[in-house]
User: What shape does this take?
Amino acid sequence: MTNYTMRPTGPADQATVAQLVTESWGAPTVVVGHGRVLEPGRLPGLIAEQDGEVVGLLTYSVEGTTAELVTFNSFQDGQGIGTALLNAMVERVRTEGCARIILMTTNDNTDAIRYYQRRGFRMRELRVGAVATARASKPEIPLLGNHGIPITDELELELTL
Assistant: This one.
């Protein structure tokens, strides 16, 4: 297990978060369910750091009793960073009164779908063809995704807290 520290993001992290999101997702904005465009640099989040380097980032939004996982990256596979970030988010939003966490992914992201299901998330909704609408707001979304699968649909997963 790698030694790293975890802390909440703050206003001083906005530029770093925007840069990391751009490197990972192609732009400083992301499109989440129903075509909403969000700037992760302006959202609450968690950063994992090791020796002054960011090794993990998670951002989320809260609306009522629902938290939405917006971006989630571990930059060192197999070190438990992603799981630690996700667990920390669960605890944070639970104490904020959230009853569930939702997230959106795309049909090509089979590795992430497996990851989330192993951590208790369940499939909630399939939005067939929704990525075409998302591309209108964020044209950087590629046509082909993981494993050469065309990116066409959104999948919403949910974890009841």
